[in-house]
Amino acid sequence: MALDRRQFMLGLLGAGLGMGAASCSSASRGSLAASTDPTDSSDATSSRATGTGASSATTSASPATSPPTSPPTAPPPLGPARYVSRGTTVSKRIALSFHTEGTTAQVTRLLDMAKTLEVPLTMLIVGEWLDQNRDLGRRIADAGHDCGNHTYSHLSLPDQKRDVVANEIARCAELLRKVTGTGGKWFRPSGSNSTTALINEEAGKAGYPVVLGFDTDPLDYQDPGSATVRSRVASNIQAGSIVSLHAQHQGTIDVFESMVAAIRDKGFMLVRASDLVS
């Protein structure tokens, strides 16, 4: 009988140990799952960086850190870029492309209106402007608008030698990658709607397959007045049109809402250049 009691007590002890081991195993699996959750440390770090939230999992004893990230690399060089000034004509879709400079207030207002009206934009960004307005550059990219390279210092490229052209393209591309994570989809030369073999070659070397021109130009940079800009755009667009506009000209910003309405009244859909040009 004494032996039976000892066996009974040993059995109870063994069961207790087994339950304890099972509990530790479950806790370990829970900890591992938490530590390997791909959204754990990155989301917590992102929330702290943006101020959008706080992570209760982070303690002072074991601070969460973001893994080091490599800077975006330049794309491989391509052959000469092709010049495109109009997209596919299979449907009534057009793209509004903006030479992107201007004051913070002008560009902010443009982006606010585009968001409210649900208008995707194609933003050809000048490097010197981007260097001074990095938050706006990131906002453009984060909103899903097309980004493009419009040279670093807005020189008239057809008048420049090869080394200057190459530097203007490469310097803006590098800054775009640093600020937005991509060098942009397009290159547009400054100073002319035309291109040259030299410009096409250097754009291709920088990884741009397309030099993006335009087929509708309201000459808004001459400040003809808001009503004239709207009329010139609405009267000249056709399926696949790419419109040239300038974010640094107040008349263009002031007429944006009514211009969008006039375009839509004619049955056109507003899209990005990447929706028109393959």
Describe the structure.
The protein is of the alpha/beta class and 278 residues long. The chain folds into two domains: 2-45; 82-276, Alpha-Beta Barrel (TIM Barrel). It is 48% helix and 12% strand. It is built from ten helices and eight strands. It has helices spanning 2-36, 40-50, 104-117, 127-132, 134-142, 162-180, 197-205, 226-236, 250-265, 273-276; strands spanning 82-84, 93-100, 122-125, 146-149, 186-187, 210-212, 242-246, 269-271. Strands 2, 3, 4, 5, 7 and 8 form a six-stranded parallel β-sheet that branches. It has a two-stranded parallel ribbon with strand order 1-6. Strand 2, helix 3 (104-117) and strand 3 form a beta-alpha-beta unit. Helix 8 (226-236) runs parallel beside helix 9. The chain starts with a helix and ends with a helix. The relative contact order is 0.16. Residues 24-84 are annotated as: Disordered. Keywords: Hydrolase, Metal-binding. Pfam families: Polysacc_deac_1. Residues 65-79 have a biased composition (Pro residues). Residues 92-271 form the NodB homology domain.
Task: Write a compact overview of the structure shown.
The protein is α/β, with parallel strands linked by helices. The protein is 48% helix and 12% strand.
Q: Please provide the ordered H/E string of secondary-structure elements.
A: HHEEHEHHEHEHEHEHEH
- Overall pLDDT score: 82
* Inertia-based shape: globular
Q: Enumerate the spans where pLDDT stays under 50 for 5 or more consecutive residues.
A: 1-68
Helix % is 40-55%
CATH class of the largest domain: Alpha Beta
Within CATH, the superfamily of the largest domain carries the name Glycoside hydrolase/deacetylase
CATH fold naming of the largest domain: TIM Barrel
For the termini, the CA-CA separation is 89 Å
Strand content: 5-15%
Number of E-state strands: 8
